[in-house]
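RECORD TYPE: inverse folding
INPUT: structure tokens
STRUCTURE:
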């Protein structure tokens, strides 16, 4: 089986985390990407969130659907100055492949419905 060539990916996205009281598993959510993951420990959850985001972004890029998928999630392409500002201010961004004008998505508005539901779920 051949390995998929992944681009360079740099990102900063907000996450939500909660421990399920019944199973004791840690559940994480990345609202901007609408992705969930889980792990047995809080430390492992951090790794799982990173792996989930990188896999999702990389596979969308590889399948040439990244623009469409990011647009569906409320993200827009940004120029280098906007991305630099987001990085300096601790904002959310995704940079893929190093071609700033083509592959950088700037400040990510959280989808209200998904974000609201995730907040509710993570507070219980």
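DESIGNED SEQUENCE:
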């Amino acid at each position: 089986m051949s390995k998929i060539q992944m681009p360079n990916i740099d990102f900063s996205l907000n996450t939500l985390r909660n421990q399920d009281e019944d199973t004791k598993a840690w559940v994480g959510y990345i609202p901007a990407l609408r992705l969930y993951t889980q792990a047995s420990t809080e430390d492992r959850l951090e790794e799982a969130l990173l792996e989930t985001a990188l896999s999702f972004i990389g596979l969308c890029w590889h399948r040439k659907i990244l623009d469409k998928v990011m647009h569906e999630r409320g993200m827009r392409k940004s120029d280098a100055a906007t991305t630099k500002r987001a990085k300096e201010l601790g904002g959310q961004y995704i940079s893929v492949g190093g071609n700033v004008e083509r592959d950088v998505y700037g400040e990510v508005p959280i989808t209200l419905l998904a974000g609201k539901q995730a907040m509710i779920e993570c507070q219980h």
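NOTES: Residues 10-123 form one domain.
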